[in-house]
Structure formats: structure tokens, C-alpha cells
Design a protein that fits this description.
This protein is an alpha/beta fold. The chain is 38% helix and 14% strand. The protein has 12 helices and 13 strands. β6 and β7 form a beta hairpin. It is globular and about 65 Å long.
């Protein structure tokens, strides 16, 4: 009997589910004759701001640009230090460095894999200007103590929400907690476009105005640059697609939560650690990440069975070649380094059949039997 292969991700399934609406949205843009910063972008920005619960959303070209623009709008630049985690997508750190600032790493909570607020005092210097907590895998970082520390030291808080569209922290939607927040709409995200895209959100009008200036060459009046800016625009096509997908986001997040509950029930009792939803958080499972001391062997076994997996992330940023110059060595961030050697992401998307979750869970049980 042939193996039923299960891909790690199936983006085509999401398209087919929403095909009629998506095709109509794309056709609407094509027929409009306006493809950059038009009505679709304006409407999406308002709809996304309303969904998150902020006053302003500015569509930009990518999640990396969103974080870069949020930092630049906050006045972060050369000579400044920005505290963040090493256990994250490298985009978080790349954005900090693109401002000319220096990333300073803090270790993570071993249960949630998000920034450990208890360690923040160890990273504070007279050059520290901001903290970028990463809401990882679909769960919020522990924001109350992070905010308390930031306010007591007059630091900005810029949330990295690239993996947490619709997640909540103690009843508050991520993106509304810090001074600004950055979102990515890369196709694999819970709210994904059909290409690159991102957004900066804030309820502070002066910060929103700065982001808009920086987003397009420093223009308030076309062709007149008030400040040195850049080109980072969400295009009309992606905005139209995102408007369709935003309407389905809560449904899709609930589907992820349902599948995660099945995984956790089926994997209970096995020598693996399953995700923990901390406190009053609402985890939206951008990724379903388990941990095992036999991670590499389990990954190889699942691959043999036709099941796709991934590691998010195999090498902490502080140990990657591009960032060794920052002075970190093996052992600098022990929790992050241990996690990188133990974690494994199982297939997770809203169109994943329950039968596939049961099959993957059974394969995992067989491996440990």
C-alpha cells in the first residue's frame, strides 16, 4: 500500500477554498488600472487596523520592512542598542541592523520559547533604546513585565507580530500592546498574501505619520522629500488578496487551534513536549512545535513515512556566521541553544485534514514504541 504523503504546508488548498473571492479580487485590481497605493490598500489598512484594534495601519512591502520602518520612525539608528531574542527568524535581527543599531540578545523562556523578561536587566546599557519582543509560533511574549521594564527605563516597545495575527495576551490583541507593531503577510503566515507584504500598526498618530513619510521617499507632497526615506509599498494586488483573507482569519485561527488540540491529545504520554498556552493567552498556532531529545531521528523517521516537517529555527541567530561579530559564543544563550537542538515543527495549516493529524501522531507514537 503506497504511503500517504503529508506535506508540511499546502498553500494551494487555501487558494482553492477561497478561489472565487480571490479570483474576483485579483480581477478587480486588474480592471481598475491602478496598481500601487490605491483604494485596495486604503481599505485594507482600515480593515486591518479595525481588526487589530489600533488607529493606524500602514501597508508596506514586507514584514522585515515593517519592523525596519517601525524602528526608524521611533528614531532608532547608529549607536543605539535594541534588545531582542536570538531564537527567532533572522528577519527580526536583520531589520534592527538595517537601522544601524546593534541587536542585543536575551534568552528565552524554556516553555513558551519567547523572551524571558527576568533576564532583561542583564542586557540594559546606557545605549539601550528599545525592546523588540517576538510573539513566536502564534503565542504572545509575556508583555506585562516587558512593558513594566521598558517604561521604568524609558524604552520603546516594538512588537514583532509576524507569527501572531489574531493572537491575544490577557484579552488584548497583539499589536496593540507596545508603541508600534510589525506584521508580515508572507504567504505562509496566518494572514498571508500571494507574495510579500507587511504592515506597521500603532495608535500613536505621530509615529504613524513618520512611518508613512519614511515608507515612500519621505514624501508628504509627491516628489518633495522632507526626510530621507525608502520605497516600501504594499501593492494593490496583495491588498485585495489580504482583504479577502482577513475575513477568514478568525475561522482559520480557530481551525488551527482545533487541530493543535487533536495533536496534543494524541501525543500525550509520549516522550515529547507539546506546546503550552501560557496563562490567559490565545495561541493561534502559526506553527505546532514539539520538542524531543531524539529530534533528528524523529525527523528522519517522519520523512521516511512521507510526512514533511521543519525546524524553526535550527541555528540561533547569535551563532550564525553573519552575526558572530557581535561577540556571542556557544553557551551565551543556553536556553535558545538547547531549544534549537530539540524542536520540530509538525504540519499545521487550517486546511490540514484531521485524518492527517491522526496519521502523524500515530507515526510519532510508532517511532517511540
Amino acid at each position: 500500500m503506497p504511503i500517504h504523503s503529508i506535506p508540511f504546508l499546502d498553500l494551494k488548498a487555501a487558494y482553492l477554498r477561497q478561489k472565487a473571492e480571490l479570483d474576483a479580487a485579483v480581477a478587480r485590481v486588474m480592471q481598475s488600472g491602478w496598481y500601487i497605493l490605491g483604494e485596495e490598500v486604503r481599505r485594507f489598512e482600515q480593515e486591518f487596523a479595525d481588526y487589530i484594534g489600533v488607529s493606524h495601519a500602514i501597508g508596506v512591502a514586507s514584514g522585515t520592512d515593517a519592523l525596519l520602518l517601525a524602528l526608524r520612525a521611533s528614531g532608532i539608528g547608529p549607536g543605539d542598542e535594541v534588545i531582542t531574542v536570538s531564537h527567532t527568524a533572522v528577519a527580526t535581527v536583520a531589520a534592527i541592523e538595517l537601522t544601524g543599531a546593534t541587536p542585543v540578545f536575551v534568552d528565552i523562556n524554556p516553555i513558551t520559547y519567547t523572551l524571558n523578561p527576568e533576564l532583561l536587566p542583564q542586557t540594559l546599557t546606557e545605549r539601550t533604546r528599545a525592546i523588540v519582543p517576538v510573539h513566536l509560533y502564534g503565542q504572545a511574549a509575556d508583555m506585562d513585565p516587558i512593558l513594566s521594564f521598558a517604561r521604568s527605563h524609558e524604552l520603546l516597545v516594538i512588537e514583532d507580530c509576524a507569527q501572531a495575527h489574531g493572537a491575544q495576551y490577557r484579552g488584548q490583541t497583539v499589536g496593540t500592546i507596545g508603541d508600534l507593531a510589525a506584521f508580515s503577510f508572507y504567504p505562509t503566515k496566518n494572514l498571508g498574501a500571494l507574495g510579500d507584504g507587511g504592515a506597521v500598526v500603532t495608535s500613536q498618530p505621530e509615529l504613524a505619520e513618520r512611518v508613512r513619510l519614511l515608507q515612500q521617499y519621505g514624501w508628504r507632497e509627491r516628489y518633495i522629500s522632507e526626510v530621507p526615506g525608502m520605497n516600501s509599498r504594499l501593492d494593490e494586488m496583495q491588498a485585495a488578496v489580504l482583504r479577502v483573507r482577513l475575513k477568514a482569519l478568525d475561522h482559520d485561527n480557530n481551525a488551527r487551534r482545533h487541530l493543535a488540540a487533536i495533536y496534543s491529545e494524541q501525543l500525550a504520554g509520549l516522550p515529547v513536549e507539546t506546546p503550552v498556552q501560557a496563562g490567559m493567552n490565545t495561541h493561534i498556532y502559526h506553527l505546532y512545535v514539539i520538542a524531543s531529545d531524539r529530534r533528528d531521528a524523529l525527523l528522519a523517521y517522519l520523512k521516511e513515512q512521507g510526512t514533511g516537517t521543519a525546524i524553526h529555527y535550527p541555528v540561533p541567530v547569535h551563532l550564525q556566521p553573519a552575526y558572530r561579530r557581535l561577540g556571542y559564543t556557544v553557551g551565551s544563550l543556553p536556553v535558545s541553544e538547547t531549544a534549537a537542538n530539540r524542536i520540530l515543527s509538525l504540519p499545521m495549516h487550517p486546511d490540514l485534514p484531521e485524518s492527517d493529524v491522526l496519521q502523524i501522531s500515530a507515526q510519532t507514537a510508532t517511532f517511540f514504541s
